[in-house]
Amino acid sequence: MITRRNLLARGAASAALLGAPKLLLAEMSLGGATISTLSDGTLTLPGDFVTANLPEEAVDIIKSYGLSTDQYTPECNLALYRDGTNTVLFDVGSGPDFMPSAGELLDSLDAQGLGAGDITHVVFTHAHPDHIWGLIDDFDELVFPDASYHIGRGEWDYWWNPETVNTIGEARTTFAVGAKRRFEFLEDKINFFDAGDEVLPGIAAVATHGHTPGHMGFEIRNGSESAMVVGDAIGNPHVAFHHPEWESGSDQDGAMGVKSRKMLMNRMAAEQMAIIGFHLPGGGMGRVEAMDGAYRFVPSS
Fold first, then answer.
1. Which residues, listed in sequence order, are joined to residue 205 by a DSSP beta bridge?
2. Does the pLDDT at position 121 exceed 90?
3. What is the average per-residue pLDDT within 142-152?
4. 265-292 tens-digit pLDDT
5. Distance CA 287, CA 120 (A)
6. 143-171 in b/e burial notation, b at 16+ Cβ within 10 A?
7. Cα gap 297→242, rounded to integer Å
8. How many other CB atoms are found less than 10 A from the CB of residue 286?
9. Alpha-carbon distance 282 to 286, whole Å?
10. What mean pLDDT is reported for the chain?
11. What's the domain range around 221?
C-alpha cells in the first residue's frame, strides 16, 4: 500500500497539487522491497515554461489547479529502490551548479540515515542537468564513488557525440557541454542497456524517448506489484495529463514525446501501476486515472 510521509508535516494530498515548496518523502512497498522518493529541491522556471506555444486552454488548466502562471517551480524527486541487497538511485539530481533552489539530494539522503557510500547502483533516465549534474562535487570527484552506473546506450551515444553541442540548439548548448563533461568521469565505469533489458533484478528499461533522444523509463516489478519510474516523460501534473497529445516545448522531439506520454498513461491507467515522476507533486508518487478521454494525476495518500 502506498503511504506518504511529509518531512515538514505539510498538507494533505490535495494541497500537494498546489505546488508549494516542500521537502517530501513519498514511499511505497513493493513486495519485500521499498521505493522512496527523495527531494532534490525545486526548479525555478519562467511562468510560460509549460504553456509556451500551446492553446490558451493550457493557461486555464493551470489556473484551475490554483497555481500561479507567473513562475513555475516544479519539485525534483529522485526515486530510491531498496530490496535488502541493492540500493538503487534513479538519477543524481542537480548538484551545486545548476540552480540555487535545487541540489538538496545529499541532505535528503542524510535525513533517511543514508550516505553517498550506501548507494550501490545509479540508473539514469536521461542526461539533462537536473538529472545528472549532481554526479560530481565541487572538487570534481564522484559523489557516489562506490556505485555502479547504468544508462541507455542511445542516450549515452547522443551526449557523447561531439557534434551534439553544435546541433542541439543555442538554448540547450550548456546541457550538451555539461553532460559530456560528466560522462567523461564515467567513461570507464558505465554499463549500457537497451529498451526491454533487465537493468538490475526486477528493474526493466522501457523506451520513453522524446524528452531526450534516449530517455528511458523503468518498470520495477516484484511479484504482482509494479511501479513505473517515468523521469521527465511526463513532466507536469496538469497540462500533460489533460492533453497528453499536445507537444511539449521541453521535449527535444515533441512528436516522439507525445507518443511516449500517451503510451505510459494508457498503460498505467489500465494496469493501475504506480507512477513515480521526477517533476510531479507530493513527492512524485501516485496513480494515473483515466477521465473523459484524458487523465489525471492522483498523488499518494
1. 218
2. yes
3. 97
4. 999 999 999 999 999 999 999 999 999 8
5. 28
6. bbeebbbbbbbbbbebbeeeebbeebeee
7. 9
8. 28
9. 8
10. 91
11. 2-299
Instruction: Give the pLDDT of residue 301.
Output: 65
3-state SS string for 243-299: CCCCCCCCCCCHHHHHHHHHHHHHHHHHHCCEEEECCCCHHHEEEEEEECCEEEEEE
Measured over the CA atoms of residue 230, residue 232, residue 234 and residue 238, the dihedral's sign is: positive
CA nearest neighbour of 4 among 273, 213, 15, 180: 15
Q: How does pLDDT run across 76-94, given as a tens digit for each residue?
A: 999 999 999 999 999 999 9
Q: List Cβ neighbours of 181 (8 Å cut-off, separation of 6 or more).
A: none
Classify the C-alpha dihedral 91-96-102-103 as positive or negative.
positive
**For position 45, which CATH number holds?**
3.60.15.10
Residue 288 CB neighbours (<10 A): 25
Give the separation between CA 45 and CA 26, rounded to whole angstroms: 24
pTM surpassing 0.70?
A: yes
Per the CB < 8 A criterion, the answer to whether 28 and 284 are in contact is no
Of the candidates 41, 11, 6, 48, the residue with the CA atom closest to the CA atom of residue 27 = 6
Q: How many domains does the chain have?
A: 1
Q: Helices marked H in the chain — which ranges?
A: 13-16, 57-64, 105-111, 129-132, 153-160, 164-167, 173-183, 239-242, 254-271
